Amino acid sequence: MNAALELFRIHNKPMLIAGPCGAESMQQLQELIVPLKTIPAFKLLRAGVWKPRTRPNGFQGHGEIALTWLKELKDQYKVPIAVEVASPMHVEQALKFNMDVLWIGARTTVNPFYVQDIVNALSGIDIPVMIKNPVHADVKLWIGALERFLNSGKTNLAAIHRGFYSYASSGYRNSPLWSVALEFKTYFPDIPMYADTSHMAGKRQWIAELSQQAFNLGYQGLMLETHPQPECALSDADQQLTPNDVIAMWNQLEFRTAVSTASDHLQTLRKCIDERDKLIIEQLAHRLKFVDEIADLKKDLGLTIFQLERWKELLHTRSVWAAELGLRQEFIEKLCQLIHDESIQLQQQRWNSNNTTNSF
Ligand code: PEP
Ligand code: MN
Description:
It is built from 14 helices and 8 strands. It folds into 2 domains: 238 residues, TIM Barrel (Alpha-Beta Barrel); 69 residues, no CATH class. Helix 1 packs parallel to helix 2 and helix 5 packs parallel to helix 6. The chain is 50% helix and 10% strand. By secondary structure, the protein is an alpha/beta fold. It binds phosphoenolpyruvate and manganese (II) ion. Phosphoenolpyruvate (PEP) binds next to helix 4.
């Protein structure tokens, strides 16, 4: 099988996509490819040829000349190469220079018009495509982009989770928001998911911990940015690793298989969890049974549905009980918020349905 195509199947082994943020020179690419090829998991070189930069004075990529270097590199070192495409013109150029894989960047996934233009430009062309998550945490946009490719008959697809822009400072350049990517994964279980921990971290010192987290969650592999002299990189200098750092990090990472293997002990533990979850749901249903009566009573007493003092007291007591049992404060607050929201919604429904009945 073409090495690049292995990236588009779910395996019990991790895969590595690595390369510079931007292709800067033939020499830069050669200095990278030699050490990268010593990593058995390295299957695909990534390199930006057109760089989507926030400000116009940044390095925008070398365009066609960079494609000539990549073509030469591919022929000389027999390595499959991926480039980012953001328009039909990019697609045409990338195909002209025999690139093996295309990827859709975060700034393109945000716009269904751009995605559809690329899908149309690829009509009838069998080339694997990797789709990054959109800049912001809208999982439907990401799902929609995948669907556009699937609807056009493409099957060699992979997803790349590169984190999400967030106003709240998490320290990372793009917050991982793992749960959003896991929602996407639940929707497309057969699409391999890679983590671009370079763009998540924004700083090289955080890449290793994020990469291990990705493997702990069952990601198929990583997309990493690497540069022979990261501090001199023309783009994303803070988040690129030297190839030697990539090798050292890769050897430290523990890959975990996402495919469930039969284990009696795991089955027993899951059974315990299932029983507890059933109890939780029964208790929740029981709790919510009181809501209608409370709603009626509040109405009779002329009270509002939302009672701030009661809410504060509820949060406080539950946090104390939870802390005594070693549960995290943040977790219990979120849980209380969910239950409380449901209770408020049910009370509103109760009042509304009573109004409707009265008005007839
Ligand atoms: C990139 O991979 O070089 C890139 C521009 O990433 P993103 O689309 O994730 O910002
Ligand atoms: Mn980059």
